[in-house]
Please model this.
Amino acid sequence: MFILSAFADEISPNPEVQLDVLDSCGIRHIEFRSILGTNVLALTDDQVQDFKALLERRGFGLSAIGSPIGKVRIDEPFAPHLEKFQRALALCKIFGTRNVRIFSYYPPENFQGDWSPWRDEVLRRMTRQCELAADAGVRLIHENEHRIYGDDPTRIADLMTTLRQRFGPDVIGCAYDPANYVYCGFDPWDGWQRTKEWTVHFHIKDWLPKAPHGSLPGEGAGRIPDVIADAVRRGYHGFATMEPHLLGGGPMGGQTGPELFPKAVAAFKKILEAAGAQYS
Model:
């Protein structure tokens, strides 16, 4: 069963517009990254409560806190970033979701392409985050983002096998984003094969090599129909979050707009139906 969700800030910064468009698409969940042009971790307590009230009034839930945790250089101080992480954990309790999207850190300045000197520090930070998540009853979902330690499926496997020695699937898992593999020059099917045992979440974004923006699901090089068909065979149950980037994207988010977003949802629903998937 695939439960559809969306990075609704791709539609509009206005939360009312976000929910109107998602309503029209039959989507009842949001991956909460930003509203009003402000990142989720930078919102005031009053803004958080206002948005929570809006979600409850409109009958929406969250698939995850779409945090930017781990999107800082690995040589930057950890303590200030850990404070932001604890804010993400607190928001899970407020919004009634157990999922936080995270990343595994950008390289240091003057990086020469060799992550090995920084592997232990990446794992130290992620281990501490897992400890805090476990105490809070929260699950961390690592995304294969461009330029982070875990953009390479081999390094993702390293992260997951190492962290899973201590923490179970209720604490740490993977979000699979096919477009990010394409953008980084990796084979998305190979990325799926290497990481599917830990995949608990999908981000639905397709891409063509060297393209300036995303493609409709199934029209890029992300092999989304093949991956979804295999996930169905494996009995996948979880969220599939729309993140089309049809008008472009960058490190802190993307843009699709209210006109194109429904087209991306419709294209993905066709893929689900062709694979024999149940979805809601």
Notes: The domain at 2-274 is CATH 3.20.20.150 (TIM Barrel). The chain has nine helices and twelve strands.
